Amino acid sequence: MGVPIFHMIDGAPDPVAPFSHAVESDGWVFLTGQLPFSGTSNRSPYPDGIEAQTRQVMENLKGVLIGCGLTFDDVVSARVFLRHFDEDYEKMNVVYASYFLPGRRPARTCVGVSGLARGARVEIDFTAHRVAKLLLVGEA
Q1: What angle do CA 119, 47, 96 make, to 5 degrees?
Q2: Which of 2, 65, 133, 137 is at 20 to 30 A from 48, Cα to Cα?
């Protein structure tokens, strides 16, 4: 087993607690759950409504993925935490699904929770896998 790499990504929101944005080991990259901060300060305001908050969370996750040299295509699993499950589930799904190609959506768990940091409506975390890309000599 390789030595873990602890990623702190420039431009990603500041953590609200003592954690790394992502931790990588043996090609597996575990992204900490992101909240809908609209800036890098963890005191930035959240956008209004579940659709806007989901979009901001996904953009924050995208920034961490990019910072690790990954894309949404590398995501193999997601966990979604909703504060108002019955009210927000369908609306969150519409936004969430728009970030993945049909047929290439990660495994996912979605649960209702009684609270999230700083009163967010949604938090999402990812597990990604770094796939080595081989360049074969003589192929264009």
Answers
A1: 90
A2: 65
- Domain boundaries defined on the chain: 5-129
3-state secondary structure string, 110-139?
Answer: EEECCCCHHHCCEEEEEEEECCCCCCCCCC
Task: Give the CATH fold of the 5-129 domain.
Answer: 60s Ribosomal Protein L30; Chain: A; (3.30.1330)
User: How far apart are alpha carbons 37 and 24 in whole angstroms?
Assistant: 24
